[in-house]
Amino acid sequence: MFEFVKNLFKKSTNYNDLKNINIAYVLANFPSLSQTFVINEIKWLVEHGYNIKVISFSTPDVPAILDFEVENIRFDEGSSCHEDLVNNLERILIENDIQLVHTHFVFPVGTLFDYPICGKLNIPYTIFAHAADIFRYNIDEMNRVGEVSSSEMCKGIFTLGNFHKNYLIERGVSEDKIIITKQASNYDIEDILINNNNPKKIVSISRYTEKKGLDDLIDVAKLLEDENYIFALYGFGELKEELRNRINELNLSNISVNDELKGAGEVKKVLREADLLVSPCKRASDGDMDGIPTIIFESMAYGTPVLTTNVSSIPEIIDDGVNGFIVEANNKEVFKDKINEIMSLPPEDLLKIRQKAQKDVQEMSSVDKTMNTVTNTWKNIK
């Protein structure tokens, strides 16, 4: 039966006519608030008339609220082991006549499901490599990305920048299969607000995980407690209470840990009212580090200055003093000094940087740019 299915796909599918084939996003979970770039991709495809199904096997820690409809088929139902998941997914792909699979994150889905099942059924697949799925030390050993990408059915590995590209090449991925594109970030370009905040509002919007460097930011707030700044952190994650305890230990009143923002509208409001977005990324003890935080693109688009660190592919989008500000990771004194430097810039100089950021982000990242790259890759499948 499977040889028949393989030959059927191979002989009859015209990938240049994408709107007449069945595409599956095979994901670990959906819809996740921390993966708005995945939601943006799927929404774009739905709105442009593609035949899309989501196939996932778990519920996200913090689900997002969707403003569009898409079928989400779970393949964990009735499963008690990995073999059951494999069999369930295989059956669902066949029953739904799926002719193309796309996945975000190499591990676990790309390694454990796309690679063996799509190879067996002769279904082309593409994977988007991001951060934890390739950078964590233990996952770096398990994801076998070189092997996964070498399959005849693997038609491309999307990733965020040259840092990522070189990292993947070192692990055996052919340069010919790597496609650089930024994540599908959604934002509006509007006139830049000139805020007159007193004290100055400095915000950070992220998950509360080690790689986000928020423990360092709390220490920076301590160094700046005599300055006229208020720091506000927004997000969710396992370190929330630990961060709050650290603030209490330091007896700080100039920084707060808040819940996650609900949707793009709240993110936009916070950024538009802020004087600075800080994203103090670093490599965590388990090896994890950010690719390029989506919030950086959103902040650039809304005209809010960005201060971040030289981690991963971030230096490929932020040019210090030109379209934002960047410092070395894990250096609290330098981070503190940079905040003071930014806050003391003449308004007209800071405005030029904010305007340049708005211009640059439109050339770097958008849903349309990402999806044009993705769909053009799919159309060229042979």
Concise summary:
With 382 residues, this protein is α/β, with parallel strands linked by helices. It has helices at residues 2-12, 36-47, 82-95, 106-121, 132-135, 137-142, 145-150, 162-170, 214-223, 240-249, 263-273, 294-302, 332-343, 347-364, 367-379, and strands at 22-29, 51-58, 71-74, 100-104, 125-128, 154-159, 178-180, 200-205, 229-234, 255-258, 276-279, 306-309, 325-327.
Q: What is the count of structural domains?
A: 2
End-to-end span in angstroms? Answer: 23 Å
- Known CATH architecture of the largest domain: 3-Layer(aba) Sandwich
Output the CATH class name of the largest domain: Alpha Beta
Structural class: alpha/beta
Mean pLDDT: 96
Briefly note the CATH topology name of the largest domain: Rossmann fold
Major beta-sheet overview = 7 strands, parallel
Poorly predicted regions are none
Instruction: Please give the number of β-strands.
Output: 13
Into which percent range does the helicity of residues fall? Answer: 40-55%
Total count of helical runs of at least 4 residues:
15
Q: What general form does the structure show?
A: globular
| H and E order | HEHEEHEHEHHHEHEEHEHEHEHEEHHH
Residue share in β-strands? 15-25%
CATH superfamily of the largest domain: Glycogen Phosphorylase B
Widest sheet: strand ordering: 3-2-1-4-5-6-7
| Rg on CA atoms, Å | 22 Å
Topology record:
Layout: H1 2-12, E1 22-29, H2 36-47, E2 51-58, E3 71-74, H3 82-95, E4 100-104, H4 106-121, E5 125-128, H5 132-135, H6 137-142, H7 145-150, E6 154-159, H8 162-170, E7 178-180, E8 200-205, H9 214-223, E9 229-234, H10 240-249, E10 255-258, H11 263-273, E11 276-279, H12 294-302, E12 306-309, E13 325-327, H13 332-343, H14 347-364, H15 367-379
Parallel strand pairs: 1-2, 1-4, 2-3, 4-5, 5-6, 6-7, 8-9, 8-11, 9-10, 11-12, 12-13
